[in-house]
Amino acid sequence: MSAVLIAGVPRSGTTWIGRTLGHTARATYVNEPDGFRDPFAFRTMLTHGENPVLDPGEHAPDLERLWAGALAGGRAAGTPRDRLARMLYERTPLDERRAARAQNHARGRLRIVKHLAAPRVADAGAAHVIVKSVQCALELEWIADRFRPRVLVVERNPFNVLASWAELDYVRSPRELSVMTTYAREHWDLEPPGPGASHLAIQAFSFGVQTSALRDAVARNSEWVQTQHEVLCVDSAARFRTLAGELGLEWGEAAERFLDESDQDGTPYRTLRRTEEQPDRWRERLDPEQIATIRETLAGFPHAFVTGS
Length: 309
Known about the structure:
The chain has helices at residues 14-21, 39-48, 61-71, 80-91, 94-103, 108-116, 140-147, 158-168, 174-188, 199-220, 229-232, 236-246, 253-261, 282-285, 288-298, and strands at 2-7, 27-31, 128-133, 150-155, 225-228. The chain is of the alpha/beta class.
């Protein structure tokens, strides 16, 4: 069995890429085992936050269990305890889940979920496991060191990403902003936007921290593979075929068909997309003031995120 871990920031195209590669020969796709929909991930978030910060070699037993199961096939445990945990979690309002993560404290049924939730388990029938995460930027080298998956890091034009973040009202947790602030200070001596800054500036800062962390990690790991969402949107079949080969995956008819069928209009949480429209969609979604805010915020980071007009 081989494993591929796809990492990027939210709204960077990772789901589309992951699902496409998940249709390659003898592949199993595991979507966000560390994400907000998974009860065991909720349990780990209470301890480590929504964006865990870990360096290679650190001890994190719950996260080791989470990633061991995910990278081995990612099947739900299926025990009575796990089924009950998943049922209770699904019935808990999103606002309650969000508040518990922000306060690092589970009450009521979420306390039961924390106690019962089990990590995912291996899938004996999987030859290639494709795992996608948008929460692992600050722990990616820890995962890679511990489990040795092939790593694919995905980027997307920051204007496109942040247009989506603005529309969907992302980055609302003070706890997570504190994590990003500490990380930026320790790694680049960089301060967050000051008091009174717009929410878009705070979103751009969070984007900059996560994407800078990914770029720094890629620079230290030459064997990792990088791609850009915009690149894959042009001549998609040929470029996905090449990408699959780089990752040790076998491109075939099922992947080709999925890619073709996904090329249509979609919604924010579906992977349907008109590929030819994607690279410059931000021009219709952001006004000049928003563009200026993003440019100004990202200019402080050590990496060049935006160039040109």
